[in-house]
Write a structure and sequence with these properties.
mainly alpha, two-stranded parallel sheet, 14 helices, 2 strands, about 5% strand, disordered C terminus
């Protein structure tokens, strides 16, 4: 006898975490994802692209090598799971309409590349580089560079030639992007013009790769949500040495005159959400990763027995700066994640 679809709204967090992903029984049809997929298809049609990627739910965003389709993370198919995602990782990647469309356009770049074999086009390689170059474990972007378009956070176009193409395609595809004006004085305009020319060359052509395979579709993933989030936290987490101590001693106090003030740990915990939001906005880093910096600072403050000084607002401002600096230091050391 087939199992009925679970009422996810009635389950506690622990009950949800003990469920297997395959038992969530989710689909794109009938959810808030459906009009977003339809919007992307319409954007492709308006650009003269006859091919449509196929879409399925999985555990993350991606477009697999050799398959012209797009996997969408399961939590976007149900508001209850989006709330759990936020509680587990402090953010919902693609959780707003604008954010979701930006990622969909990026992934469409990969899917269309695969469908038409665009990476084999001589102009592709000349402009973007070798698509078969190995992906680096980490990349160190140059924020001031105008050789790349700006689309997803953290200057993602700089990660790899294939990502450079997908990001440029996404900017080219977006309705009303005015890329000819926006990038007219940037070297990146050559890449946008190359995408424009490449896509015109395949207008109304049939795709050469039409596989509809769904890699790691949700119905086949048998691990529990608890295991899923443990693995994601491990992936995004960082090991932090106690290099904070000198900075924390400057930020807070161990003076006897402040012994009746709140502890530094309590103060940081109180403003923890504001720290995450502010630093995420500045750096584009995962909220979970930023929270690990804050957690380490809290633990070090407890060990050092530090307390709040006389100027809470100044301390809060300086704490935001310290968390941002520590977070960005990992980026500039090259320790950065590939989001897509």
């Amino acid at each position: 006898m087939a199992r009925s679809n679970p009422d996810l709204d009635q389950l506690s967090d622990d009950e949800l975490l003990d469920m297997r992903l395959c038992d969530l029984k989710l689909q794109i049809k009938g959810t808030s994802l459906e009009p977003k997929v339809e919007q992307l298809n319409e954007e492709l049609r308006s650009r003269g692209i006859g091919f449509r990627p196929h879409y399925w739910l999985s555990d993350d965003w991606y477009s697999p090598d050799g398959i012209p389709g797009i996997a969408i993370p399961f939590y976007l198919a149900h508001p209850r799971l989006a709330r759990l995602e936020r509680k587990q990782l402090f953010e919902v990647e693609g959780g707003t309409h604008q954010w979701c469309m930006k990622i969909l356009r990026h992934e469409a770049g990969h899917a269309i590349d695969t469908a038409f074999g665009l990476h084999q086009h001589p102009n592709y390689r000349r402009v973007f580089g070798n698509p078969q170059a190995p992906y680096p474990d980490y990349y160190q972007p140059k924020p001031s560079s105008k050789n790349f378009v700006l689309h997803l956070d953290m200057w993602y176009a700089q990660a790899h030639p294939v990502e450079d193409f997908a990001e440029t395609f996404a900017v080219w595809l977006r309705p009303g992007s005015r890329w000819k004006t926006r990038y007219q004085n940037w070297p990146a305009i050559k890449k946008l013009k190359a995408v424009d020319a490449i896509m015109k060359s395949v207008e109304n052509q049939k795709a050469i790769e039409k596989s509809r395979r769904k890699v790691d579709s949700l119905s086949r993933i048998r691990r529990t949500l608890r295991t899923h989030y443990e693995r994601k936290r491990l992936r995004y987490g960082l090991d932090f040495p106690s290099i904070y101590d000198n900075d924390l001693r400057k930020l807070f106090s161990n003076d006897a005159n402040h012994k009746r003030n709140p502890t530094a740990a309590a103060f940081l915990n109180k403003i923890r959400g504001e720290l995450r939001r502010s630093v995420a906005k500045w750096t584009g880093e995962y909220s979970y990763t930023i929270d690990q910096v804050v957690q380490e600072m809290i633990e070090r403050c407890r060990r050092l027995q530090l307390r709040l000084g006389d100027h809470p607002e100044e301390t809060k401002r300086d704490a935001i700066i310290l968390v941002a600096v520590r977070t960005m230091s990992f980026l500039h050391e090259g320790r950065h994640r590939f989001a897509l």
